[in-house]
Amino acid sequence: MNADAPPSTNSGEGGGSSDEEDAAVRAVVPENVTAWIGATHHDDLGDWMWDTNLIVNYTNWVLGQPDNANATDDQEDCAAYNNTNVTAAYNTTGWEDYHCLDTRPFVCMIIQIGRAHV
């Protein structure tokens, strides 16, 4: 699924809005996999938004991210959780920005009354 697909199975704030939720995302994304987390940045103000239209207040960007580096059309506007630890010296486990049309698995949050679960 690409990140521009409708988030019909998502509810809540997406891939993580706290250290605890981010740890839950890390627990379900297999090693060496990068998965969409439901955060995008399609506005001119630079604000990252969850697919529920809430502003992203918590982030876990990999050092140097978001960088829009691999988008020839300036369109690395979607965030994904990268669970790839390339070397101990350069830990790439965390959020990175990618082109929204890339195909990746998607982490969704399920809301239960009184409690959110990834």
Question: Brief overview, please?
Answer:
The chain is mainly β and 118 residues long. The strands form 2 sheets. It has a 4-stranded antiparallel beta sheet with strand order 2-1-3-4, with no helix packed on it.
Order of strands across the main sheet:
2-1-3-4
The low-pLDDT segments are: 6-15
Structural class: mainly beta
Large-scale geometry: globular
Q: What percent of residues are in strands?
A: 15-25%
CATH topology of the domain at 32-101: Mannose-Binding Protein A, Chain A
Helix count, DSSP H or I runs of 4 or more residues: 1
CATH superfamily of the domain at 32-101: Mannose-Binding Protein A, subunit A
Compute the gyration radius: what is it? 13 Å
CATH domain class of the domain at 32-101:
Alpha Beta
| Total count of strands | 6
- Taken in chain order, the helices and strands follow as HEEEEEE
CATH-scheme architecture of the domain at 32-101: Roll
Account of the 3D structure:
The chain is mainly beta and 118 residues long. The chain has a domain of 70 residues: Mannose-Binding Protein A, Chain A. It is 8% helix and 21% strand. It contains one helix and six strands; from the N terminus they run αββββββ. It has a four-stranded antiparallel beta sheet with strand order 2-1-3-4, with no helix packed on it. A two-stranded antiparallel sheet has the order 5-6. Strand 5 and strand 6 form a beta hairpin. The longest helix is centred in the first third of the chain and has 10 residues. It is globular.
